[in-house]
Structure of ATP-binding cassette domain-containing protein:
Amino acid sequence: MASEPLITASNLTKRYGPHTVVSDVSLSIDRGEIFGVVGESGSGKSTVARMILRLIEPTEGRVTFDGIDVLAASPHELRMLRRRMGIVFQDPYAALNPRMRVRDILAEPFAIHRDAARGPEIDQRLRAMLDEVGLPATALPRYPHEFSGGQRQRINIARALLLRPDFLVLDEPVSALDVSVGAQVINLLRDLQRRHGLTCLFISHSMPLVRYLCDRVAVMQRGQVVEQGDALAICDHPTQTYTQQLIAATPELPALVN
Ligand SMILES: Nc1ncnc2c1ncn2[C@@H]1O[C@H](COP(=O)(O)OP(=O)(O)OP(=O)(O)O)[C@@H](O)[C@H]1O
């Protein structure tokens, strides 16, 4: 028997005053898959992801996470849900507090979720996680400005994974990075996703990247899903003109694949 999807979003709509920025979006994300949301800037991708995480309240619609009604969750339930969800933002520079040491940035989730780990175990978890994202333990006492963009994004990924979430939102995680650095980060994400059996929502404007990384994809245009399904099928045989234009607009990936 097929398992229930980890996430279902049904008829999500977001309006700001008279502006409808997301309109009637429905999708479901299976456990262990990477689901892509692709579209040009302003098409509503981030708004959909933030509504799923309930960082933004939808105007209409429903979200379930592991069968739990996310929008009806009490503050306590929401805290428990948030622990199971991580997010990596686009801009690795803006996402890290420049006045905090890496150790404190990474330990922050443990301060919020006090029962997740204590004392010496926290330090152990930080070191192990840094190792997983390819950074040395000597990073711990240093400040974000001492790191390159790619290294900073690795710190963001480590922070997002520290509480061992089931679900990770990747909001254009490499679009602020150089192509070769971005390729390394994409491969790291793919390895971590496989190793931990993570379920991911990957937001991107790049069809080749979606083709490389995602199992399924939803294509968004002006707040609506115009096409969704198997990522390879849609990238190789798009049925919508908009999808064809997106493909034509993005250069081929350089040698990303390792
Ligand atoms: N708080 C807000 N108030 C009004 N409009 C907003 C607000 N947040 C987002 N929007 C508008 O909603 C639309 C969708 O934005 P969103 O960030 O979801 O798009 P996106 O596809 O993720 O774009 P990008 O790739 O540039 O991040 C945009 O037109 C944006 O200007």
